[in-house]
Structure formats: C-alpha cells, structure tokens
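This protein record is not my work; I was only asked to verify it. Take the sequence as given and treat only the tokens as open to question. I have pasted the whole thing underneath without changing anything:
***
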Amino acid sequence: MPETADTRNALDALDDFLEAGRFSPGDRLPPERELTVRLGLTRTLLRKALDSLERDGRIWRHVGKGTFVAAHPGAARPGRLSDLAARISPVDMMRARLSLEPAIAREAALAASQDAVNAIFAARDRAQDAADWDIYEAEDNQFHRTVAEATGNILLLDLFDQLNQVRRAVAWTAVTRHSSRPPRDHASFPEHDRIAEAIAARNPAEAQAAMRDHLGSVSARLFGDA
C-alpha cells in the first residue's frame, strides 16, 4: 500500500520524538495513548508509524510489556527477543549479566580512552544525582552501557545491547521503594565508584571484580540467595 502524506508526517513526528528523547537501545517507549497526545496523532497513524519502524528493525514489541528501542537498525530480531523475554526468569537474566558484564568491564579498563573514562564518571554522577527512582534506573542503565561503549569493541557493545533489550522486557517482581529517590547511602553508589575508579586506573582485574561484586550485590538485594 502506498505511503500517504499523513503516514509520512506521522513517521517524521515519531522519528523526531525518538531523536529528541535520546533513547538508548533497550529503552521502552511511552504507551500508545501517551504518544498520541504528545505527537498529536490518531491511534491509527501512530500504529502505522510504529509498524514502519518495526519493519526497519528500529523497535521491537513484546505483548504485555511494551515497545522497545532496538540495538541498531536490522539487529532487533523482534521475534527472537520477545520469545526470550517471555521465557527467561529474572534470576537467569542476572546470571547472564554476571557472565558478560564483568568481562566487559575488564575490556573497558584495557581499552578506554580518557574521553570514555570521563563519560563513565559523568554517567555515575547523573545516577547519584537522580531526582527519583525512574530517573535513577535510566541513568544506572546508561552507566552500564557507557562501560560497554568504553571497550571500543562493537561486538561487545552489541552483545550488551541485545542482553539489555531482553532485560528491559523481562517480568521483574515489583520492588518496594521506601523513598521517592535513591538514598545517599544507596549500595550501588560506592559499587559504581569502584567500577569507574578501576577502569580509570587501567586495572582490568579490579574492574572485572568490581563489576562482578556489584551485580552480585544487586542480585542478592533482589533475590536473596536465589
């Protein structure tokens, strides 16, 4: 079916929204009802634009979870990722992260440029300064991705993005929050400090151990001894 002017305008509006929002791979888009209001589109035109992005591999959908930004065009493998997200448990997801991310931190310590190190510290600071839990979780995610970017290895970054896309769609058990934002003594803050400082010191063994301990600490807080 030929693309109409209205459909093209809807796709342009959605493209502009994604660019302005600085969405990272694995980020979840707002629900359709919110997007229609923010973009001034009908539900039909929005869905046509989303369908186009999905065909191009720029987003992928998981029924009941939402719409997610793909790692890069053509790499989303939406059927495969949504199938994994439906089948994997949060515990298995953390075990997968424990297998991959410490090795990524090690590579970052070996390869990171000074600009990459600065970006890691900046991401750490934004997470610590987060005004609420939603912002913290987004900045925490960005901290981990910035470590992956610091490796300079596009395959490792792509593996991280693929894992992260599934992680964002896994059905996590609700976490009870006792404050509106992370407290100043939140356990992840010194753990992030240790990771960043090990990478800055070009100490691959310490960077690997720091990331492993951090993810182990997160897993223990979420699942106890699971």
